[in-house]
Amino acid sequence: VLNNLLENREMQLEDGRFLVAPHRFDELSKKYSKRKLENMGFLKVHPRFRVIAIGVPVPPFPGNPLDPPLRSRFQGRQIARIDTVLLLESIQVTFNPQENIKDTIEGLLSAYEAIWQFASLKFSSSGQDSKNAVFASMVLPGETAIISAVELVVQYPHIATITEIMNRIFPLEFCVQDSEILNSLSNILNTDANEGNIPIVERMIQSHNIGRDICL
To answer: What's the Cα-to-Cα distance from 155 to each of 96, 144, 152, 160, 216, rounded to whole Å?
Structure first.
């Protein structure tokens, strides 16, 4: 069904109507009126109609890969997450946070980076069964979640700790199903929250090759 839509721009819809390729619809229009075609359930597909599919590569993600003929009809584009250093810079520019909450924001970004580094390490583990278990048991926080957390800190700077804010955007008991991974992440987040924001500041200095004082 999907292949026919991609190749011929034609597909039977659940309500009984039928999508018809533009050129075929135009040919039918020479024999039948537009109202007649509509009554027959024919819908003309727009010439610029495109199919956009969201998916993940298999492997390393669990699941079944697309068969080559179907896969060849798509142009692939990988959309990776924003680098944490760039995300911090964007947050600094967008929110211009006051001095009293900068440490909290940088701590949030450090915790965010720690989660992704832990996930990357687990994802690169040997054995497809191990990888499948990790992919099936973790839901990672995205950039929008961090930005929402920063908005919370900006509006209410004194009501929550880094750990409490992270629990709002990344509640471990709901986002992680595997007990071993849950314990590991709990230790990582607690350690990161206690040690502060040194890791991400060091990364920023290293990535920009800064040899002098900086103002964040």
So the answer is: 12, 17, 5, 11, 19
